[in-house]
Write a structure and sequence with these properties.
The chain is α/β, with parallel strands linked by helices. Helix content is about 50%, strand content about 20%. The protein has six helices and nine strands, in the order αβββααβαβαββββα. The strands form three sheets. It has a five-stranded mixed β-sheet with strand order 5-4-3-8-9. A two-stranded antiparallel sheet has the order 1-2. Strands 6-7 form a two-stranded antiparallel sheet. The radius of gyration is 37 Å and the shape is globular.
Length: about 230
């Protein structure tokens, strides 16, 4: 073998380590890319979970409203009327014991000075003397603040006390707070409800999903029959 051939062959082994190093760099680069590839879905999945969590929020509200619906169904005729102590228009406080031994009508309305609630309150006012003659007191209840209740009373010359239950405690106890729907949207609010309490302090009649027209007259007839 010539000296030139020996020099060429000697370069080949010395160059081989360089050839071996290249795959190492390639593997390192591949591992780096694979690591980046693995991290990318992880970050996207985190965002997906966050979004999914935000979509689940309404379902939790619906579940809570179902439980409220169950509480509403728990109040039945014949049961003892739940006690309450709440402020009324004028600044006084009203309690259930204030009407002990007397028949009592509690009509729960969604919002003061809205069309349906106004007609209902005016109808009960129109029959105020008839309810008094039947030994029956009448109270209106909503979640409106006292100022709104007083404005409602003065504007329409309402005869009955108006109770403000901003914490919904009485509304829930009497089953007048629950799930509602309007224009395809579901939410929690006041369910138009009327409860007639007998002189013995027990629930005599319950009207749910009240239709305003003729309702006050129907309640008066029921009070007279007790």
């Amino acid at each position: 073998m010539s000296k030139k051939s020996q020099k060429k062959s000697s370069k080949t082994p010395s160059g081989s380590p360089t050839a071996k190093k290249k795959p190492v760099k390639t593997r390192a680069t591949t591992q780096t890319r694979s690591a980046k590839t693995q991290r990318t879905p992880a970050s996207k999945s985190t965002k997906t979970v966050a979004k999914a969590g935000s979509h689940k929020a309404p379902s939790k509200q619906l579940n809570s409203s179902k439980s409220l619906g169950a509480a509403k169904a728990a109040l039945t005729e014949g049961q003892k009327a739940p006690a309450f102590r709440l402020p009324r228009d004028g600044g006084d406080v009203v309690t259930l014991t204030d009407y002990a031994g007397q028949k009592l009508v509690l009509f729960f309305y969604p919002r003061a000075d809205t069309p349906g609630c106004t007609r209902e309150a005016i109808d009960f006012t129109r029959l105020a003397d008839a309810f008094t003659a039947a030994g029956t007191a009448v109270l209106g209840i909503s979640a409106d603040p006292l100022k709104a209740q007083e404005k409602f009373r003065d504007k329409h010359k309402l005869a009955m006390p108006l109770i403000s239950d901003e914490t919904h405690e009485m509304l829930e106890a009497y089953g007048a707070w629950g799930e509602k729907s309007m224009y395809g949207k579901r939410f929690l609010g006041i369910l138009r409800t009327t409860v007639l309490v007998g002189g013995d302090g027990r629930v005599a009649r319950i009207w749910r999903n009240v239709r305003v027209d003729g309702h006050a007259d129907e309640v008066l007839a029921a009070a007279r029959s007790l």
